[in-house]
Amino acid sequence: MSQVWYAGNKLNDAEAASFSRRSHLYGDALFETMRVHLGKICFWESHYFRLMSSMRILRMDIPLDWGPDDLESDILSCVPQGQVDQRVRLSVWRKGGLGYAPTVQGVDWGIHVEPLKEFGYPHPIKTLHMDLFQEHKKSSGLLSTLKATHAALYILAAQFAQDQGLDDVFLLNQENRLLETSRGNVFVLKANVLTTASLTAGALRGVMREQVIRLAPGLGLTVQEDALSPFALLEADEVWMTNALDGVSAVAQYRKTKYSAEQATRMQNTLRASSLF
């Protein structure tokens, strides 16, 4: 049996177990960050099908009892009841220990829960000051679309934003095209055309991205998935960041360029007025 030591102390079997998870050893894990509002998981169906698809891509065994209703019930059983929205992160990792090749089949899972300040998606919407992160680029491909725990790029980008006194930064792909931010997907609005990076370019398959694409035509906006140069930010009317916790956030300023937030606010109001709120 392998031994696990921490800060010079040998751990017992129970203590060592947390250090021996493949999520810790290799980042062999996925996660879903969700908002729970009035006892419901916002856009649960989208979260569920993204999780199932991601697990198949990573060749993880899906438990037989993980139907959408059963898994939702298991998650909500861990969430405090009340009038406060909750941030819920479901983590799923492959069983097994050392070695790239898994020694056993199956998955384990855990949940983090913490209260959110806002009741429903923030209103008024959050505004962000941003710049480019160019030290590292994100690769394209199917794995780049997943919410996986190997998150070095996002950590470095978030640290860079913090060091520069920014709210967030834009990430680029290997072709120097605008992709996303450290916290979510990006939409660029010019006139009535809303553009976001495609999944094939390496963009995250965001749940809120999916909702914005679905709802935009009802607001008179045309959506296109296309590669954008960072120079498009200088000509945009509005720039949005979207994720499951905040819904739509409006970029207020990129370098010296400032934006309005009228359409971003309309989209946020549409999300808040959906059947979940």
Please tell me the total number of domains: 2
Number of helices: 7
Measured on Cα atoms, how large is the radius of gyration?
20 Å
CATH superfamily of the largest domain: D-amino Acid Aminotransferase, subunit A, domain 2
CATH architecture of the largest domain: Alpha-Beta Barrel
Tell me about the biggest sheet?
9 strands, mixed
Beta-strand content estimate = 25-35%
Unreliable spans are none
The top-level CATH class of the largest domain is Alpha Beta
> N-to-C terminal Cα separation, in Å?
52 Å
Sequence of secondary-structure elements = EEHHEEHHEEEHEEEEHEEEEH
**Overall body shape:** globular
Structural class computed from helices and strand pairing: alpha+beta
Q: Give the rounded overall mean pLDDT.
A: 94
The tally of beta strands, per DSSP, is 15
Under CATH, the topology of the largest domain can be stated as D-amino Acid Aminotransferase, Chain A, domain 2
Helicity, as a percent range: 10-25%
